[in-house]
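The instructor's notes for this session suggest beginning with a concrete chain rather than abstract definitions. Hand out the sequence below and ask the class to guess, before any prediction is shown, which regions might be ordered.
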Amino acid sequence: MSITATEISTGATTSAARTETATTPETAGPRPSFLPLIVDVAVPVGSYYLLRNGFGMSTMAALGWSSVVPAVRTVWSVVKERKVNALAGLILFVNVVGLALSLVAGDPRLMLAKDSGVSSAIGIGVLVSVRLGRPMMTQGMKPFLVKGDAARAAAWDRLAAGSEAFRKAERTFSLVWGTVLLSECVARVVGAYTLPIDTMVWLGTVVMIASMVLAFLLSGRFAVVPMEKMLEHEVAAGAGKQR
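After discussion, reveal the predicted structure:
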């Protein structure tokens, strides 16, 4: 919002400033938007790597302790909100799969292949959410596009309700990530059983990083950029109607 010279000359500065102060808590806006993503994903995933690599815990112990937060979040959402927290539930499922796979030992190639279990579980979960019409990756993408701005949040809601192109781009974002993660799993499994073990030890990390970069580029090109343009157009259209 801007205060024009006409508003200043007519004594409207005070009311305009009050309106601006009341409608632009943008510094506080992103915090509640990012909080679910941080609690449901960043805390359990980060705690797993911290416990395993920082404190030297075994894989099973690290997975077990890092499952506490998503387990509590999942139960809480079912009991209090009468719905399943998708992200917390998925992370919990991934940890359970990891715990089960950690029981497998003896075959070094199988141990290498099991590392792709996390990618496959997340990829399948994301693809299923797209199929069900509730793309899971939206929870991670929306805060970056809305940016804590009330006008952009309102524009998002309008587009999500009335624009098929917007909903298609939203599904595309999750579809790209789910497909890339599942493809990464397949590539690492194939590599684990066809390449020398010493090669696959470092190549697995390279494949993972390359997959993340590819997912960022593709989802940005085919989903984030179009959605950003649609949001800007919708915000401008909404501002025009209010004048």
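Then share the key points. DSSP finds twelve helices and no strands in the chain. Residues 44 and 200 are 27 Å apart (CA to CA).
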